[in-house]
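Worked example (supplementary).
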Amino acid sequence: MAKINSLEELRKIRDQAKESMVARSGNAKVKIFASMGTVGIAGGAREALKAMIDELEKRDFHEVDIIESGSMGLDREEPVISVERDGYLTTYGRVTPDMARQIIAQHVINGQIVSEWVIARNKK
Amino acid sequence: MKIYRIHALICAGGQCITAGGDSFEEALKRAITEKGLEDEIQVVETGCMGACEKGPMMVAYPEGILYVHLKPEDANEIVEEHFLKGRPVQRLMWKEADGNFPTLDQVPFFAHQTKVVLRNCGLIDSENIEEFIAREGYSALAKALSSLKPEEIVDEIKKSGLRGRGGAGFPTGLKWEFAAKEVSDQKYVVTNADEGDPGAYMDRSIIEGDPHTIIEGMAIAGYAIGASKGYIYCRAEYPIAIKRLDLALKNARKFGLLGKNILGSDFNFDIEVRMGAGAFVCGEETALLRSIEGKRGEPTNKPPYPSQKGLFGHPTVINNVETFANIPFIIAEGYEKFRRIGTETNPGTKVFSLAGKVITTGLIEVPLGISLRKIIYDIGGGIPNGKKFKGALMGGPSGGVVPASKLDTPIDFESLQEIDSMMGSGGMIIMDEDSCMVDIAKYFLKFTVDESCGKCTPCREGTRQMLEILERISSGKGKETDLEDLLSLAKTIQQTSLCGLGQSAPNPVISTIRWFRDEYEAHIKDKTCTAGVCSMKKPTLEVKKNAKKIAH
Amino acid sequence: MQKKSLIEKLHDIQENQKNTNHLPKDMIIEAAKESNVSLSKAFGVATFYTMFSTQKRGKHIIRICQNQSCHMANSALVVDELKKTLCIDFGETSEDGLFTLEHSSCLGMCSIAPCMMIDDRPYGNLTPGKVVEIIHSIKVGA
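After joint prediction of all chains, the assembly is encoded as:
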């Protein structure tokens, strides 16, 4: 903890600390919903979730809320991950940890959906 | 940087901790570790969230799921069902009367509030300075030091119309201007954290939940008036608050936000905490300053006012905790934004501790000018058990009662004075039909008699005389002349007491006689207590054996 | 920063008297000398503040709140139970020297009334049964 000597240094600390508090701010740019029903968990939903968080940390992207929900009822498609961004809710099915990383890099961070894995897309 | 997908914010306000919040937190952390979720769930202790009656409380972000009345045995279920499987546990959630489970922003208790002073309470780890900085903490001080002159700051506070939140409502900007104009090689900034009004815990919650906002407010005041030293006088009955203050000061110094050359400027300022030792009168500003000086807390004559000759004889700005907590907002956002809240003559918000016969008690912050009706019914949820509202006690032992006929009175300094009530520091006790107004007045007067410092005769002897009359009335021995005697005594004490404690001591009696005269008359003439409270037995004056404060 | 004020010195002295929680006369005199004030002034300060005591007290100080909100939550019943259990009245110390019962000013915990503080620790949502348990657990731990 070093002494802060200017407004700029204060702002730097502010911006860094703000990133770690996005979840409480209600200002996340992207919302990720991870369906955690029994089938999903059996199919590897937790591994996919962990991979997503790891990828976000690696890429230093913090403007995201990660929300677990119960089963969506799409047992055949589990694990199911939905991304709410730019006014749309996009749902991906049968998400593996590798796919999860790709979704983070391409869709969550860069705004480009990964069409081949989409199972549903609705306006929010 | 680590990403936690759930932030579990546990209220660590004094009441929630005392109700078992610390045991719940321990159990929660244990359960999280057992399920291997420490990397995904961040447990944070925050300041008072406000719904004190629902504690121990926790809010799980990002959804804002509200958990209430938590016990240690609830921890496993929350971790298993909600944190692991994504299924919030409804039986433990805040439930409205209509059966809905609202999230934090949907709860009427919170939705009707406007949080300026309490903007960080419940959202940040109160012991983490970086989280304070994340929410624009110290940016007002930085703005002041880098781009505003001291006189511009005084001007901004004057234009904001901020009035002292300790009860007197004196214009803060004016107070600062007086001190700034004085020429002296030493000036002081003092925070009055000797919150003694029964039923008031606003200041405690601010200190425990967001101590840095007070430090920032004081530093800005120091810069504005030319002071290099500050004191926070905190009552000894608040050990958690004192602990958090000490930690906050230590961290502020580490970051160079207190001490020499703050933020690289040539402004030096540091703050020390001084503890009280159990004397209500030390909430009076001159008594408080004497106490910091190590003397008996006896008020001294004004003028000279503290801004001219205060602590150790030097110009001193002394303000209440809540007043200082408003300063960063005004300087950072500008006086116009502040004036948009509240009313023309009473801008800004006020924090109240809502207690007594109301469904949801706790700490609230509302724009000035709001009606009492809205506070009790929209925010507090109304009177429990189908009882009728009888009166709201405001201003503690210096205040008065707002009766049912005045429910639509706007809560502001002048409107309350017109009905013989008072804003006070923010304690608001709601009474229902089962309360006796004579008993209430007697209660407050007993308090004042105990707390009188004894220095001046009108207060020392006068309040005791009033109490004796009330004791007689409430035990079936009232006389026809009692009401006139009470009011005459009240006038004398008001006009001739040395300090605010004495001057306002008769207020509860004056107010209850004005609005509930028939109740007094029933006690005196019919020897009955309509609310069934007074036992109408022989009274005994209870003497505190360990309080030897009467001057010899 | 400034050296300690007389009041802070007295707080320190009293805190160090762990079993009697009071200000011994000779220590007040010493504190007066250190602070450069007259004896009468020092004793004036020591007797002004309710948290200081020049008389010996118990190891644990119970401060029970009976102000408005606690009063409305029936603190009287809790007070009666405390008096009965400890066989003392306000201002008195139990025979085993463990507890002194005192009035408290408002503790600011009105939503969990009735409340009390024992030393530095607050207790809320009190019932006659609960206070008996609390006293017992302190006795056992003493």
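Two points are worth noting when inspecting this output. The two ends of chain B are 66 Å apart (CA to CA). Chain B has 20 helices and 13 strands.
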